[in-house]
Specification:
Elements (H helix, E strand, L loop, with lengths): L3 H25 L3 E7 L5 E11 L2 E5 L4 H4 L6 E6 L2 E6 L3
Antiparallel strand pairs: 1-2, 1-4, 2-3, 4-5
Length: 92
């Protein structure tokens, strides 16, 4: 008879694997895009963000606000979604 510890570790391992698989599938879909912003020194930074379409415009969301602060340097960014690149301008 397996111990409670072995059962508990197995259940936690299966749950973690399910969460990782879920995020991998989401990352392959249309809900995640790559936002490129240009820094003061001219280098580009890429950030993976959640994207939702509303009235024909993409609305971006992430867990942090660091990417949004990069808009202050240049409100023009590049968004890559489904292999297509678009230049976007920030709207408040």
């Amino acid at each position: 008879m397996p111990s409670i510890f072995v059962i508990l570790v197995s259940v936690i391992g299966i749950a973690c694997a399910a969460v990782v698989a879920h995020f991998m599938v989401i990352g392959l879909g249309r809900e995640v895009a790559t936002l490129r912003t240009q820094g003061h020194d001219g280098t580009w930074r890429e950030t993976r963000l959640w994207v939702v379409d509303y009235d024909g415009d993409p609305w971006l969301h992430s867990a942090g606000e660091e990417w949004e602060q990069r808009f202050e340097n240049d409100p023009v960014v590049e968004l890559t979604r489904d292999g297509k690149h678009r230049a976007l301008h920030r709207r408040a």
